[in-house]
Specification:
mainly alpha
């Protein structure tokens, strides 16, 4: 096989790998965002005791 064909194929492999990593990152970010917005915010309980502090 000619060297230029090998070079073109290796560049195509590198580009495909970069696109794959970008896609995985986008999906991971979307999943993390959905998890973060799906969980309710924690609320602190208010003080209900009527006893005075000692």
């Amino acid at each position: 096989m000619a060297n230029w064909i090998k070079a073109v194929l290796s560049q195509a492999e590198v580009c495909a790998f970069i696109v794959l990593l970008d896609t995985v990152g986008a999906f991971g970010s979307a999943v993390a965002h959905r998890i973060a917005t799906a969980t309710p915010d924690a609320q602190l309980a208010s003080e209900t005791s009527t006893a005075s502090p000692q």
